[in-house]
Amino acid sequence: MKAEERFLRQAKPFWANVRTISELTGYTTKQTRQIKIPSLSEMTQALSRVGLTSSHILDSNGQPTAFGQLLSSYFTYRATILNEFVQSKLMDASRAKQVYEDMHAKLCPQCPLPMNKQKREKRAPLYLTGIVNMLIEANAEGLPCNYDPQGLTTITSGGFPLRTLARRVDGAFPQVVDPVAVWEVKEYYYTTTFGSRVADGVYETLLDGLELEELRNEEGVDIQHYLILDAYDTWWTKGRSYLCRIIDMLHMGYVDEVLFGYEVVERLPAIVQEWVRIVKQRG
Description:
two-stranded antiparallel ribbon, 9 helices, four-stranded mixed beta sheet, 2 domains
């Protein structure tokens, strides 16, 4: 999914309020375990409890300000898109395996299809990574792709390195030097808790996004940045607050699109076709 245009790249104070209010009021409702939509009064009371002003949300007459209305609209949007769209797209291991096997039989891929690092009965292909790789290969029109970069992403000008990202990404198209697009794949089908490794995966994508934002602002170079994730139990049952953070990150402009679960099948072919168009334009 792409960001909703009306919330895209709001000023930093807007996101400071989103994060603070989310932390103070909670991300989910205890009764329904759905994503929470804090009311304006809940927002102001939460800020007041920790000694912060709330006059930017409700004016002296108790009426919502324009800023307060925007916050309320965003919280409503975030909850709705997660509760009604994202939840339905997330797959469990069984469904991901079926999609992977059906695609493998149909496409007869030559691309890398890595295995997970689990043992015994949990040892299996990395289903989401395999699905991503197969779809890229099927839609790349023969162009190369680095499915597993073993080096840092570098952006150059006339052979001179302008920027090198701090960490390795999971994939780059068509190569890791001067790519059109880079992506991260976060699949946790067999994870039993929402631990630090899963949380770190979110912040790694944020770090990449911050570096790519600086590259875009300072050098005028725009590299498309994608986050692709799956595992219903990990992300929805245990990690809904992190899904909220991911939606925030998307609208802060730190990632161009997030593909949730089965959405990768529906959306990635068109994305890859756009990458091919850009590469061909470059000549």
